[in-house]
From TrEMBL:
Positions of transmembrane segments: none
Native source organism of the sequence: Leadbettera azotonutricia (strain ATCC BAA-888 / DSM 13862 / ZAS-9)
CDD domains, sorted: DUS_like_FMN (cd02801)
Cleavable signal peptide: none
Source species, domain of life: Bacteria
Name the record gives this protein: Putative dihydrouridine synthase
Any Pfam family hit: Dus
Length: 389
Protein backbone atom coordinates (compact mmCIF):
# COMPACT_ATOMS: atom_id res chain seq x y z
CA UNK A 1 0.00 0.00 0.00
CA UNK A 2 2.81 2.33 1.04
CA UNK A 3 4.64 1.41 -2.16
CA UNK A 4 1.64 2.29 -4.31
CA UNK A 5 1.14 5.64 -2.52
CA UNK A 6 4.82 6.52 -2.88
CA UNK A 7 4.65 5.62 -6.56
CA UNK A 8 1.57 7.84 -7.01
CA UNK A 9 3.20 10.78 -5.17
CA UNK A 10 6.41 10.48 -7.19
CA UNK A 11 4.46 10.15 -10.42
CA UNK A 12 2.38 13.24 -9.64
CA UNK A 13 5.50 15.20 -8.70
CA UNK A 14 7.32 14.27 -11.87
CA UNK A 15 4.29 15.10 -13.99
CA UNK A 16 3.97 18.46 -12.21
CA UNK A 17 7.63 19.29 -12.83
CA UNK A 18 7.34 18.25 -16.45
CA UNK A 19 4.14 20.27 -16.93
CA UNK A 20 5.53 23.37 -15.21
CA UNK A 21 8.72 23.30 -17.20
CA UNK A 22 6.85 23.10 -20.45
CA UNK A 23 4.41 25.80 -19.44
CA UNK A 24 6.59 28.59 -18.11
CA UNK A 25 9.50 30.57 -19.49
CA UNK A 26 12.79 28.94 -18.61
CA UNK A 27 14.26 32.14 -17.19
CA UNK A 28 11.79 31.89 -14.31
CA UNK A 29 12.03 28.21 -13.80
CA UNK A 30 15.51 27.13 -14.72
CA UNK A 31 16.04 24.73 -11.79
CA UNK A 32 12.76 22.96 -12.34
CA UNK A 33 13.41 22.93 -16.04
CA UNK A 34 16.78 21.29 -15.64
CA UNK A 35 15.23 18.39 -13.74
CA UNK A 36 12.23 18.04 -15.99
CA UNK A 37 14.39 18.16 -19.09
CA UNK A 38 16.29 15.19 -17.73
CA UNK A 39 12.99 13.36 -17.24
CA UNK A 40 11.66 14.66 -20.53
CA UNK A 41 13.36 12.37 -22.96
CA UNK A 42 17.10 12.39 -23.23
CA UNK A 43 19.55 9.69 -22.17
CA UNK A 44 20.16 9.24 -18.50
CA UNK A 45 23.89 9.05 -19.08
CA UNK A 46 23.94 12.42 -20.78
CA UNK A 47 26.38 14.76 -19.11
CA UNK A 48 26.09 18.11 -20.83
CA UNK A 49 23.52 18.82 -23.54
CA UNK A 50 22.44 15.75 -25.52
CA UNK A 51 24.39 15.03 -28.69
CA UNK A 52 22.48 14.45 -31.90
CA UNK A 53 23.40 13.14 -35.34
CA UNK A 54 21.90 15.40 -38.03
CA UNK A 55 19.55 14.07 -40.67
CA UNK A 56 21.57 13.83 -43.90
CA UNK A 57 20.26 12.36 -47.14
CA UNK A 58 22.22 9.23 -48.15
CA UNK A 59 24.35 9.50 -45.01
CA UNK A 60 22.25 9.21 -41.83
CA UNK A 61 21.41 5.54 -42.19
CA UNK A 62 22.01 2.39 -40.21
CA UNK A 63 25.59 1.70 -41.39
CA UNK A 64 26.71 5.13 -40.15
CA UNK A 65 24.87 4.66 -36.85
CA UNK A 66 26.46 1.23 -36.42
CA UNK A 67 29.87 2.73 -37.12
CA UNK A 68 29.34 5.55 -34.61
CA UNK A 69 28.22 3.06 -31.97
CA UNK A 70 31.44 1.05 -32.33
CA UNK A 71 33.31 3.97 -30.77
CA UNK A 72 31.10 4.07 -27.69
CA UNK A 73 32.39 2.22 -24.68
CA UNK A 74 30.98 1.25 -21.31
CA UNK A 75 29.48 4.34 -19.71
CA UNK A 76 30.15 6.36 -22.85
CA UNK A 77 26.96 6.44 -24.85
CA UNK A 78 28.30 8.88 -27.41
CA UNK A 79 25.39 9.91 -29.53
CA UNK A 80 22.09 10.51 -27.71
CA UNK A 81 19.81 10.82 -30.72
CA UNK A 82 20.09 9.61 -34.29
CA UNK A 83 18.00 11.56 -36.79
CA UNK A 84 17.43 9.52 -39.94
CA UNK A 85 17.94 10.86 -43.44
CA UNK A 86 14.76 12.51 -44.66
CA UNK A 87 12.07 10.04 -45.66
CA UNK A 88 9.62 11.12 -48.34
CA UNK A 89 6.17 11.03 -46.73
CA UNK A 90 4.45 10.39 -50.07
CA UNK A 91 6.74 7.51 -51.05
CA UNK A 92 6.55 6.03 -47.58
CA UNK A 93 2.78 5.82 -47.42
CA UNK A 94 2.68 4.51 -51.00
CA UNK A 95 4.91 1.65 -49.84
CA UNK A 96 7.86 2.33 -52.17
CA UNK A 97 10.36 -0.51 -52.67
CA UNK A 98 13.01 0.96 -50.38
CA UNK A 99 10.84 2.18 -47.52
CA UNK A 100 11.73 -0.66 -45.16
CA UNK A 101 15.38 0.37 -45.47
CA UNK A 102 14.53 3.95 -44.61
CA UNK A 103 12.46 2.78 -41.63
CA UNK A 104 15.29 0.57 -40.27
CA UNK A 105 15.71 1.77 -36.68
CA UNK A 106 18.81 -0.25 -35.82
CA UNK A 107 21.04 -0.53 -33.92
CA UNK A 108 19.46 1.53 -31.12
CA UNK A 109 15.76 2.06 -31.82
CA UNK A 110 15.18 4.17 -28.73
CA UNK A 111 17.58 6.82 -30.03
CA UNK A 112 15.96 7.04 -33.47
CA UNK A 113 14.21 10.16 -34.68
CA UNK A 114 12.57 9.58 -38.05
CA UNK A 115 12.68 12.65 -40.23
CA UNK A 116 9.97 13.05 -42.84
CA UNK A 117 9.71 15.47 -45.72
CA UNK A 118 6.79 16.44 -47.92
CA UNK A 119 4.41 19.18 -48.93
CA UNK A 120 1.05 17.50 -48.50
CA UNK A 121 -0.22 17.77 -44.89
CA UNK A 122 -2.24 14.56 -45.09
CA UNK A 123 0.77 12.62 -46.41
CA UNK A 124 2.99 14.01 -43.68
CA UNK A 125 0.42 13.24 -40.99
CA UNK A 126 -0.10 9.69 -42.25
CA UNK A 127 3.63 8.96 -42.57
CA UNK A 128 4.25 10.44 -39.12
CA UNK A 129 1.61 8.25 -37.50
CA UNK A 130 2.85 5.11 -39.30
CA UNK A 131 6.47 5.70 -38.28
CA UNK A 132 5.35 6.55 -34.76
CA UNK A 133 4.21 2.94 -34.44
CA UNK A 134 7.82 1.76 -34.77
CA UNK A 135 10.07 1.78 -31.75
CA UNK A 136 11.74 5.20 -31.84
CA UNK A 137 12.27 8.39 -29.87
CA UNK A 138 10.26 10.68 -32.08
CA UNK A 139 9.25 12.08 -35.42
CA UNK A 140 10.83 15.15 -36.97
CA UNK A 141 9.39 17.23 -39.78
CA UNK A 142 11.80 18.74 -42.26
CA UNK A 143 11.24 22.48 -42.64
CA UNK A 144 14.85 23.25 -43.47
CA UNK A 145 15.82 21.52 -46.70
CA UNK A 146 16.50 24.09 -49.39
CA UNK A 147 17.51 21.70 -52.19
CA UNK A 148 15.63 22.95 -55.28
CA UNK A 149 14.07 19.52 -55.93
CA UNK A 150 12.48 19.61 -52.48
CA UNK A 151 11.72 23.31 -51.98
CA UNK A 152 10.16 23.61 -55.45
CA UNK A 153 7.41 21.18 -54.40
CA UNK A 154 6.50 23.26 -51.33
CA UNK A 155 8.35 20.93 -48.93
CA UNK A 156 11.37 21.53 -46.66
CA UNK A 157 12.17 25.19 -46.05
CA UNK A 158 9.15 26.29 -48.11
CA UNK A 159 6.96 25.52 -45.09
CA UNK A 160 8.59 28.53 -43.46
CA UNK A 161 6.90 30.85 -45.97
CA UNK A 162 3.44 30.41 -44.43
CA UNK A 163 2.96 30.39 -40.67
CA UNK A 164 -0.74 29.49 -40.82
CA UNK A 165 -0.29 26.56 -43.21
CA UNK A 166 2.67 25.18 -41.25
CA UNK A 167 0.74 25.42 -37.99
CA UNK A 168 -2.25 23.57 -39.43
CA UNK A 169 -0.05 20.83 -40.84
CA UNK A 170 1.64 20.33 -37.47
CA UNK A 171 -1.69 20.24 -35.65
CA UNK A 172 -2.83 17.52 -38.04
CA UNK A 173 0.37 15.50 -37.65
CA UNK A 174 0.23 15.93 -33.88
CA UNK A 175 -3.04 13.99 -33.71
CA UNK A 176 -1.40 10.78 -34.91
CA UNK A 177 1.94 11.03 -33.07
CA UNK A 178 2.25 9.82 -29.50
CA UNK A 179 6.01 10.22 -29.32
CA UNK A 180 8.02 13.44 -29.43
CA UNK A 181 7.17 15.61 -32.41
CA UNK A 182 9.93 17.96 -33.52
CA UNK A 183 10.80 20.27 -36.41
CA UNK A 184 14.16 21.11 -37.94
CA UNK A 185 14.29 24.47 -39.66
CA UNK A 186 16.44 27.38 -40.78
CA UNK A 187 16.39 31.09 -39.97
CA UNK A 188 14.02 31.72 -42.86
CA UNK A 189 13.49 30.86 -46.49
CA UNK A 190 15.86 33.72 -47.32
CA UNK A 191 13.28 35.35 -49.59
CA UNK A 192 11.16 38.39 -48.72
CA UNK A 193 8.99 37.62 -45.72
CA UNK A 194 5.27 37.57 -46.41
CA UNK A 195 4.53 40.08 -43.66
CA UNK A 196 7.59 42.17 -44.54
CA UNK A 197 8.85 41.88 -41.00
CA UNK A 198 12.24 41.43 -39.42
CA UNK A 199 13.71 37.94 -39.94
CA UNK A 200 14.09 37.08 -36.26
CA UNK A 201 10.68 38.46 -35.27
CA UNK A 202 9.16 36.31 -38.00
CA UNK A 203 11.16 33.25 -36.87
CA UNK A 204 9.88 33.63 -33.32
CA UNK A 205 6.28 33.98 -34.52
CA UNK A 206 6.74 30.93 -36.72
CA UNK A 207 8.21 28.80 -33.95
CA UNK A 208 5.60 29.91 -31.41
CA UNK A 209 2.90 28.76 -33.80
CA UNK A 210 4.61 25.37 -34.09
CA UNK A 211 4.90 25.21 -30.32
CA UNK A 212 1.19 26.00 -29.96
CA UNK A 213 0.37 23.27 -32.48
CA UNK A 214 2.24 20.66 -30.46
CA UNK A 215 5.89 20.67 -31.52
CA UNK A 216 8.10 19.65 -28.58
CA UNK A 217 11.59 20.41 -29.87
CA UNK A 218 12.97 22.71 -32.54
CA UNK A 219 16.38 22.33 -34.14
CA UNK A 220 17.68 25.52 -35.66
CA UNK A 221 20.32 25.44 -38.38
CA UNK A 222 20.97 29.17 -38.30
CA UNK A 223 21.30 29.99 -41.97
CA UNK A 224 18.61 31.01 -44.44
CA UNK A 225 17.42 28.72 -47.20
CA UNK A 226 19.17 30.84 -49.81
CA UNK A 227 22.49 30.76 -47.99
CA UNK A 228 22.76 26.96 -48.13
CA UNK A 229 26.29 26.49 -46.69
CA UNK A 230 27.77 29.77 -47.91
CA UNK A 231 27.77 31.77 -44.73
CA UNK A 232 28.89 30.75 -41.23
CA UNK A 233 26.11 29.41 -39.03
CA UNK A 234 24.88 32.22 -36.75
CA UNK A 235 24.68 30.57 -33.34
CA UNK A 236 23.61 33.79 -31.63
CA UNK A 237 20.20 33.13 -33.21
CA UNK A 238 20.04 29.75 -31.47
CA UNK A 239 20.45 31.30 -28.07
CA UNK A 240 18.08 34.17 -28.91
CA UNK A 241 15.39 31.78 -30.12
CA UNK A 242 15.75 29.60 -27.05
CA UNK A 243 14.94 32.58 -24.85
CA UNK A 244 11.70 33.12 -26.72
CA UNK A 245 10.29 29.59 -26.58
CA UNK A 246 9.07 27.27 -23.86
CA UNK A 247 10.16 24.12 -25.68
CA UNK A 248 13.80 23.00 -25.99
CA UNK A 249 15.89 24.35 -28.84
CA UNK A 250 18.75 22.38 -30.38
CA UNK A 251 21.54 24.14 -32.30
CA UNK A 252 23.24 22.88 -35.44
CA UNK A 253 25.87 24.13 -37.85
CA UNK A 254 29.59 24.18 -38.56
CA UNK A 255 30.82 22.09 -35.64
CA UNK A 256 34.17 20.81 -36.90
CA UNK A 257 35.55 18.55 -34.18
CA UNK A 258 35.02 17.10 -30.70
CA UNK A 259 36.38 20.23 -28.99
CA UNK A 260 33.97 22.43 -30.89
CA UNK A 261 31.14 20.01 -30.19
CA UNK A 262 31.83 20.03 -26.48
CA UNK A 263 32.23 23.80 -26.45
CA UNK A 264 28.77 24.23 -27.96
CA UNK A 265 27.25 21.58 -25.69
CA UNK A 266 28.58 23.16 -22.54
CA UNK A 267 27.98 26.75 -23.60
CA UNK A 268 24.41 26.77 -22.29
CA UNK A 269 23.13 28.45 -25.46
CA UNK A 270 20.98 25.49 -26.47
CA UNK A 271 19.30 22.42 -25.03
CA UNK A 272 20.93 19.95 -27.41
CA UNK A 273 23.67 20.02 -30.03
CA UNK A 274 23.41 18.47 -33.47
CA UNK A 275 26.32 17.65 -35.75
CA UNK A 276 26.22 16.61 -39.38
CA UNK A 277 29.18 16.59 -41.77
CA UNK A 278 31.84 16.39 -39.06
CA UNK A 279 30.25 13.17 -37.79
CA UNK A 280 30.73 11.56 -41.20
CA UNK A 281 34.36 12.62 -41.35
CA UNK A 282 34.89 11.65 -37.70
CA UNK A 283 32.33 9.01 -36.67
CA UNK A 284 34.10 8.92 -33.30
CA UNK A 285 33.25 12.58 -32.60
CA UNK A 286 30.45 11.80 -30.11
CA UNK A 287 32.53 9.33 -28.10
CA UNK A 288 35.54 11.61 -28.21
CA UNK A 289 33.59 14.62 -26.98
CA UNK A 290 32.08 12.53 -24.17
CA UNK A 291 35.52 11.20 -23.28
CA UNK A 292 36.87 14.73 -23.08
CA UNK A 293 33.88 15.76 -21.04
CA UNK A 294 34.33 12.87 -18.61
CA UNK A 295 38.01 13.73 -18.23
CA UNK A 296 37.18 17.36 -17.53
CA UNK A 297 38.95 18.41 -20.70
CA UNK A 298 36.13 20.59 -21.91
CA UNK A 299 37.04 23.62 -23.93
CA UNK A 300 36.10 26.93 -22.40
CA UNK A 301 32.42 27.45 -23.16
CA UNK A 302 31.98 29.61 -26.22
CA UNK A 303 30.19 32.89 -26.21
CA UNK A 304 27.41 32.80 -28.75
CA UNK A 305 29.15 35.15 -31.17
CA UNK A 306 32.49 33.35 -31.23
CA UNK A 307 33.45 30.80 -33.82
CA UNK A 308 34.44 27.28 -32.89
CA UNK A 309 37.99 27.90 -34.06
CA UNK A 310 38.45 30.26 -31.13
CA UNK A 311 37.70 27.57 -28.58
CA UNK A 312 41.36 26.75 -28.18
CA UNK A 313 43.26 23.50 -28.45
CA UNK A 314 42.02 20.67 -26.30
CA UNK A 315 44.24 17.67 -26.00
CA UNK A 316 42.63 14.30 -26.35
CA UNK A 317 43.83 10.99 -27.69
CA UNK A 318 41.85 8.27 -29.40
CA UNK A 319 43.49 5.51 -31.32
CA UNK A 320 41.66 5.58 -34.61
CA UNK A 321 42.64 3.32 -37.46
CA UNK A 322 41.39 5.17 -40.53
CA UNK A 323 41.84 2.29 -42.96
CA UNK A 324 39.99 -0.22 -40.76
CA UNK A 325 37.23 2.26 -40.04
CA UNK A 326 36.66 2.76 -43.78
CA UNK A 327 36.62 -0.99 -44.40
CA UNK A 328 34.22 -1.55 -41.52
CA UNK A 329 31.89 1.05 -43.01
CA UNK A 330 31.90 -0.84 -46.32
CA UNK A 331 31.01 -4.08 -44.51
CA UNK A 332 28.18 -2.36 -42.69
CA UNK A 333 26.93 -0.85 -45.92
CA UNK A 334 26.84 -4.28 -47.59
CA UNK A 335 25.04 -5.72 -44.56
CA UNK A 336 22.44 -3.04 -43.90
CA UNK A 337 21.63 -1.36 -47.19
CA UNK A 338 20.16 -2.69 -50.45
CA UNK A 339 22.60 -3.21 -53.34
CA UNK A 340 20.96 -0.35 -55.26
CA UNK A 341 22.22 2.05 -52.57
CA UNK A 342 25.75 0.75 -52.15
CA UNK A 343 27.68 2.92 -54.58
CA UNK A 344 25.93 6.22 -53.92
CA UNK A 345 26.14 5.77 -50.15
CA UNK A 346 29.78 4.71 -50.25
CA UNK A 347 30.76 7.67 -52.40
CA UNK A 348 28.84 10.08 -50.18
CA UNK A 349 30.50 8.73 -47.06
CA UNK A 350 34.03 8.73 -48.46
CA UNK A 351 33.43 12.23 -49.82
CA UNK A 352 33.76 13.32 -46.18
CA UNK A 353 35.78 10.49 -44.66
CA UNK A 354 38.66 10.95 -47.14
CA UNK A 355 39.22 14.40 -45.64
CA UNK A 356 41.08 12.60 -42.85
CA UNK A 357 43.81 11.76 -45.37
CA UNK A 358 46.68 13.81 -46.61
CA UNK A 359 45.82 13.00 -50.23
CA UNK A 360 42.08 12.85 -49.64
CA UNK A 361 41.01 14.41 -52.94
CA UNK A 362 43.14 11.97 -54.88
CA UNK A 363 41.56 9.03 -53.04
CA UNK A 364 38.06 10.42 -53.65
CA UNK A 365 38.79 10.45 -57.37
CA UNK A 366 40.00 6.85 -57.22
CA UNK A 367 36.94 5.68 -55.30
CA UNK A 368 34.51 7.56 -57.56
CA UNK A 369 35.80 5.59 -60.54
CA UNK A 370 34.75 2.29 -58.99
CA UNK A 371 31.50 0.60 -59.89
CA UNK A 372 31.28 -1.95 -57.06
CA UNK A 373 31.77 -1.96 -53.30
CA UNK A 374 34.53 -4.53 -53.58
CA UNK A 375 36.44 -2.21 -55.95
CA UNK A 376 36.04 0.66 -53.51
CA UNK A 377 37.44 -1.53 -50.73
CA UNK A 378 40.46 -2.52 -52.88
CA UNK A 379 41.17 1.06 -53.94
CA UNK A 380 40.85 2.24 -50.34
CA UNK A 381 43.27 -0.34 -48.96
CA UNK A 382 45.59 0.15 -51.92
CA UNK A 383 46.13 3.74 -50.87
CA UNK A 384 47.33 2.64 -47.43
CA UNK A 385 49.63 -0.02 -48.93
CA UNK A 386 51.22 2.65 -51.09
CA UNK A 387 51.86 4.69 -47.94
CA UNK A 388 50.57 8.21 -47.38
CA UNK A 389 53.77 9.97 -48.37
C1 LIG B 1 24.72 15.63 -47.66
C2 LIG B 1 23.75 16.35 -46.77
C3 LIG B 1 22.44 15.92 -46.69
C4 LIG B 1 21.54 16.58 -45.86
N1 LIG B 1 20.26 16.09 -45.75
C5 LIG B 1 19.39 16.64 -44.86
C6 LIG B 1 18.13 16.05 -44.61
O1 LIG B 1 17.78 14.99 -45.14
N2 LIG B 1 17.31 16.68 -43.73
C7 LIG B 1 17.68 17.84 -43.07
O2 LIG B 1 16.90 18.37 -42.28
N3 LIG B 1 18.90 18.39 -43.27
C8 LIG B 1 19.76 17.81 -44.12
N4 LIG B 1 21.01 18.32 -44.25
C9 LIG B 1 21.44 19.45 -43.40
C10 LIG B 1 22.09 18.91 -42.11
O3 LIG B 1 21.15 18.21 -41.32
C11 LIG B 1 22.67 20.04 -41.25
O4 LIG B 1 21.66 20.94 -40.93
C12 LIG B 1 23.79 20.79 -41.99
O5 LIG B 1 24.68 19.91 -42.62
C13 LIG B 1 24.57 21.71 -41.02
O6 LIG B 1 25.17 20.96 -40.02
P1 LIG B 1 26.78 20.62 -40.06
O7 LIG B 1 27.49 21.91 -40.27
O8 LIG B 1 27.05 19.99 -38.72
O9 LIG B 1 26.98 19.69 -41.21
C14 LIG B 1 21.93 17.69 -45.09
C15 LIG B 1 23.26 18.13 -45.18
C16 LIG B 1 24.16 17.46 -45.99
C17 LIG B 1 25.59 17.93 -46.04
Amino acid sequence: MLGISLFAVMGTLLFYIYFMAKSYPRQELSAVFALSFFVYNFDNDTMSAPYMLAPMAELSHRPLRELIETFSGPGLSGCSEYFTEMISAGAFIAGGPFESWYADNGPCPRKIVYQIVGSDPSHLARAASLLDQNECLGIDINMGCSAPAIARTGAGVRWMADIGKAGEMIALARKGVKRRLSVKLRLSTGYALPEGEDEFVYLVRFCRRLEEAGVELITLHPRTGREKFHRTARWDYVSALRKELRIPVAGNGDIADAAGFLARASSGVCDAVMVGRAAVKQPWIFAQARQMEAAGLGAAPLGTGESVAQSGEVFTKMNINIEETGLLFLDLLAKYQPPEFHLSRAQRFFGYFCDNLKWGNYVKTLLNRETELSGIGRAWSGYFREGEE
